[in-house]
Amino acid sequence: MAAVAPATRWRLLLLLLSSVGLGAVGAPQSPNIVLLLMDDMGWGDLGVYGEPSRETPNLDRMAAEGTLFPNFYSANPLCSPSRAALLTGRLPIRNGFYTTNAHARNAYTPQEIVGGIPRSEHLLPELLKEAGYISKIVGKWHLGHRPQFHPLKHGFDEWFGSPNCHFGPYDNRARPNIPVYRDWEMVGRFYEEFPINLKTGESNLTQIYLQEALDFIKRQQAQQHPFFLYWAIDATHAPVYASKAFLGTSQRGRYGDAVREIDDSVGKILDLLRGLSIGENTFVFFTSDNGAALISAPRQGGSNGPFLCGKQTTFEGGMREPAIAWWPGHIPAAQVSHQLGSIMDLFTTSLSLAGLEPPSDRTIDGLDLLPTLLQGRLVDRPIFYYRGNTLMAVTLGQYKAHFWTWTNSWEEFRQGVDFCPGQNVSGVTTHTQEEHTQLPLIFHLGRDPGERYPLSFASAEYLDALGRVTPVVRQHQEALVPGQPQLNVCNQAVMNWAPPGCDKLGKCLTPPESVPEKCSWPH
Amino acid sequence: MAAVAPATRWRLLLLLLSSVGLGAVGAPQSPNIVLLLMDDMGWGDLGVYGEPSRETPNLDRMAAEGTLFPNFYSANPLCSPSRAALLTGRLPIRNGFYTTNAHARNAYTPQEIVGGIPRSEHLLPELLKEAGYISKIVGKWHLGHRPQFHPLKHGFDEWFGSPNCHFGPYDNRARPNIPVYRDWEMVGRFYEEFPINLKTGESNLTQIYLQEALDFIKRQQAQQHPFFLYWAIDATHAPVYASKAFLGTSQRGRYGDAVREIDDSVGKILDLLRGLSIGENTFVFFTSDNGAALISAPRQGGSNGPFLCGKQTTFEGGMREPAIAWWPGHIPAAQVSHQLGSIMDLFTTSLSLAGLEPPSDRTIDGLDLLPTLLQGRLVDRPIFYYRGNTLMAVTLGQYKAHFWTWTNSWEEFRQGVDFCPGQNVSGVTTHTQEEHTQLPLIFHLGRDPGERYPLSFASAEYLDALGRVTPVVRQHQEALVPGQPQLNVCNQAVMNWAPPGCDKLGKCLTPPESVPEKCSWPH
């Protein structure tokens, strides 16, 4: 993980560039950083990734002007751990975003969760401060909603959005509606001041989030601040929504309407950067938090293209993500990089862009992608797939080894909860937890991206792949120091009853008695 | 089917263009036509269609310079009928390329087939002669190998290739090896003069086919003839092969090696057209004869992207094809057309390019795509999916109605013949022939390209879709005059024992006694 050299080199490069006049009048020393993080959007949802309706002209153009990663991964098949990994550069097993309540369970931050991002974790915006960045999060935080977890306590300077998913509407008695914050205080709740019409799918939230992004960019540009914008919007997470102008416009139904509005918004963000002449001084990265939620398909869920299963699983459909890097004048246009990339790389890469080193007192899983993006260099590195504290699989080069296979329980499956609709690979998409730690199932993802044909245990190729995977996994496991699990305890009393600012709005609700209990994570 | 107007208009346009000087020195009056027809290549095999390894830079560039069709269909999920449909502009049920030996069976032209393309059918090269075109077929003919079916008796002026698939090697006793022809006579046999190493996958056939194409183009250009090149190569049909320079170079294994060599060859063909300055006078279309053969995956079969099942089936994976139209200076660059297209359209479109009308004494199923390609016009038209003489399904707009579902028999399936590996949609991918003619299964292909979620029979959407599909199907069936079925009778005596020219090579074999029998088509 050669983070030191490229970061230093990059800073030198910047100094050189500005000395030869490329640094425009008052341009910040370090490039702005815009991370566009989608919610439950799948690898197969963009035209440039082969979605047949091809309704993402702006994202496709972004790819044509930048670098497309076909082998880019989330750090977890579920939202909160994935986002915690992005902002810390560390696997959820390290930063505490996992549960030990049962074996191999996905966990996240519903509003009854007690835990959240530990104070000991260094978040990206916190570190970017050292280089003078102003940071804003627009959209879903999802790293804990109790006061100590507030994003402005973890380095962000501004926030517009919600701490949890936009589920609801709730009755504000058994369960409060999710609040929407501006900075420190709530400014309303979903389904109240921020309506989402579940019947029609209409909501103008993406337009609001877009405006927040455009305003922030303009303000920072006017003040000549380097900025970090984390645009974590959620229109493609069920219940999916779109504003009136986009509803009914997609060939793909409501989910497609949401994608079209997002695509349009990304276009407007890039247009603004171009219009302000800061495109060449702004690094933009587009990706998603986990695979498409096939349980919500087809009307409320996206596409994972040719990959197996979706969100909640550690098959490729659950964790392989669309990913586009854009930085005109620096990242060459129309490139495809087969670097195995991780959402955690956005942490290290952003620090490198800012001329900073990642923290040296802890393990950082993210790589600096700049050598890949700027010089086409490829680094051999593993991708780890976890559920809870269980290492389910690892990918190294073209080989993916599954140590455990599981989709969900027979009980859930029989009730209609299906993470792999229409797909069934015997011995692979299992409904019981199957251990393969001694003799992992190994797939060659180049020949078999859909994980349908495990290599024969007797083949030379299997033995060779196993021989390469085994020491990498052993080294990972031996060195691993798991963080304190944050997602074990739930309590109805910690829900969003009375967020800061509720009094000004007359929106404070009375919490029930505090009863801590083990959270139940069924899959 | 407004074929008259565009064809006339096009001719006028050409006259106008040449009168203002765009017709270069001695340029032919009508554009050259190059049809690049792949064998068993799937929709998902090209980078531009989302194949994760993205190893088709030349085809991707062709798409960037032309029009990509995401909704383009074969006329049959199997090779011979599909090719007969391309060259006649007519459904196999009309041109005779089907069987009635059993219900809903795929049939083709193995070397024991007695039938072939009927004399009464007008093939594209035959018609193009009227406009002065010289035509060559390079590669697989597959419309019958007995003397009366020879391509040079059906309008082609030149042939280099084989009448049947490159299966083998055979012992030349029970079964002869397939001959390779140059024009009227054989010049050798596969696995003899034209080796394919089944163990290594090495064969230089694609290089030979490429050279044939380049030579033909140069010769016709030198003689100022408008030409039609039908480049029907077969490296992606099992047994897949590649030449030494490409073997082992793909991330996708041997199948990918074959694709890379084809991609490279397409690049060389387009480069030659550009180099000879006839790119703007040459219409090039790339497509495939049917979906990827998933029975041969992963080592010898391709990818159908997000679609259901593959070759042999009437699900999208069996019949939706990659399709790119290229004609610089005429077809605008980087377009995507959602016109429902058919391989049969290449017949009508080619005639239109040549300023010819399709035959008026018979039903032609192909549309003229020029209004779509040149003016972006969309035409509402059905796509029919047949197995044998059974109408299995129809697509109209976004709706696909299945009247019959079947993959293959339980017996075959239990023996390991699987057309939908890893896929299983309850009640859809059936192993018994299920009739739905009264109440078809209907899918919305925009929301559900993978055919996983049949519309509810009770929904208003279902009733509306059914109401639109029903009259179209009724009209089709009422007007249908099936051709004489050509694929019912087999006979060992008609195999390629003694093709013309065998005597000169000392390669004539003695046929066995003539015993006509019903061909057996298991699925």
Automatic annotation (TrEMBL), chains A, B:
It catalyses: Hydrolysis of the 6-sulfate groups of the N-acetyl-D-galactosamine 6-sulfate units of chondroitin sulfate and of the D-galactose 6-sulfate units of keratan sulfate. The keyword 4Fe-4S does not apply. The modification 3-oxoalanine (Cys) is found at residue 79. Its main location: other. Glycans are attached at residues 204, 424. CDD domains: GALNS. Its EC number is 3.1.6.4. InterPro entries: Alkaline_phosphatase_core_sf, GALNS, Sulfatase, Sulfatase_CS, Sulfatase_N. The keyword Disulfide bond applies. Pfam families: Sulfatase, Sulfatase_C. It is found in: Lysosome. Transmembrane segments: none annotated. Ca(2+) binds at residues 39-40, 79, 289-290. One of its GO terms (molecular function) is N-acetylgalactosamine-6-sulfatase activity. Residues 1-26 form the signal peptide. Keywords: Calcium, Disulfide bond, Glycoprotein, Hydrolase, Lysosome, Metal-binding, Signal. Homodimer. Belongs to the sulfatase family. This is N-acetylgalactosamine-6-sulfatase. It comes from Otolemur garnettii (Small-eared galago). The lineage of its organism: Eukaryota, Metazoa, Chordata, Craniata, Vertebrata.
